[in-house]
TrEMBL record:
<feature type="domain" description="DUF4469">
    <location>
        <begin position="140"/>
        <end position="246"/>
    </location>
</feature>
<dbReference type="InterPro" id="IPR010992">
    <property type="entry name" value="IHF-like_DNA-bd_dom_sf"/>
</dbReference>
<protein>
    <submittedName>
        <fullName>Uncharacterized protein</fullName>
    </submittedName>
</protein>
<dbReference type="Pfam" id="PF14848">
    <property type="entry name" value="HU-DNA_bdg"/>
</dbReference>
<dbReference type="InterPro" id="IPR027824">
    <property type="entry name" value="DUF4469"/>
</dbReference>
<dbReference type="Pfam" id="PF14734">
    <property type="entry name" value="DUF4469"/>
</dbReference>
<dbReference type="GO" id="GO:0003677">
    <property type="term" value="F:DNA binding"/>
</dbReference>
<dbReference type="InterPro" id="IPR049893">
    <property type="entry name" value="Bvu_2165-like_IHF-HU-DNA_bdg"/>
</dbReference>
<keyword id="KW-0238">DNA-binding</keyword>
<feature type="domain" description="Bvu-2165-like IHF-HU-like DNA-binding">
    <location>
        <begin position="19"/>
        <end position="131"/>
    </location>
</feature>
Length: 255
């Protein structure tokens, strides 16, 4: 808890935004929603209280709250559940698989969870939503650079190395990879993947979220134009998405 006191705070308007994130662990392509967080500190709450009751002493209030905080932590350390002013209850939960017997049970760790009360849930039932936006988690290719010439003018040197810069580029999954699809002057390419040229996974030198570096496939023909297609199911953390996401580059010409 902060040792300083902030007596100034602007109230929000009682509404917020919802962001929809695609659930890649659901083959149906469904989304889950998150209400945008706007954190309020103890200092902010005390400042709000002082607006309603000017007799409240901020220093005393913070001291009392710090003592209560210490007691809550001590109660949890004893394995007790804590009802926090009927707003909800802190309780101890176990993380891990239960197993079929006591001998096979695997408890990874104990952690604290919180269950909100009926009163708390009813308090947000009339909260307004300003807008709903969809978060795009697909990779994006911002630039393509020929590492042999150092240029990013849309030309790549045959059998030499190239670099993709962008976001969420990291390759993951056996069906993922970097592909070159031959295209016409308008950038139209065949969706028949058997005609695409795949970059050998062993020739990928850097495989990072913002940067990919690799050698061009030897099967690419000089003088022809291609679109670079990136396919991955990588995500933050150790798990992969069930479905693949893709990105397509601007037209590049092999010379």
């Amino acid at each position: 808890m902060s040792t300083t006191t902030n007596i100034n705070y602007s109230d929000t308007d009682g509404s917020g935004n919802l962001t929809l994130y695609k659930n890649y662990f659901d083959n149906g392509g469904k989304y889950y929603a998150r209400f945008d967080r706007r954190n309020v500190t103890i200092d902010n709450l005390i400042a709000r209280t002082q607006k309603k009751d000017i007799g409240v002493n901020a220093i005393t209030a913070k001291h009392i709250l710090s003592l209560i905080k210490a007691e809550i932590i001590e109660a949890l350390q004893r394995g007790e559940s804590v009802n926090l002013m009927d707003l909800g209850t802190f309780y101890i939960a176990a993380s891990g698989t239960s197993g079929n017997t006591a001998e096979t049970a695997e408890i990874k760790k104990l952690l604290v969870k919180f269950t909100s009360s009926k009163e708390t849930n009813e308090a947000v039932s009339k909260l307004g939503i300003n807008r709903i936006v969809i978060a795009d988690s697909s990779p994006s290719i911002d630039s393509v650079t020929d590492l042999f010439t150092g240029l990013n003018d849309g030309t790549l040197t045959s059998k030499k190395a190239a670099r993709l810069d962008g976001g969420r580029l990291k390759i993951s999954g056996s069906d993922g990879g970097i592909f070159f699809a031959e295209c016409d002057t308008d950038g139209i390419y065949s969706e028949d993947e058997s005609l695409w040229h795949k970059v050998n996974p062993e020739s990928i030198m850097r495989n990072l979220s913002k940067t990919l570096e690799f050698f061009l496939p030897e099967s690419l023909e000089s003088g022809k134009s291609y679109r670079i297609i990136l396919r991955t199911n990588s995500r933050k953390g150790n798990e992969d998405k069930k479905t693949f996401v893709s990105a397509v580059s601007d037209i590049v010409t092999v010379k």
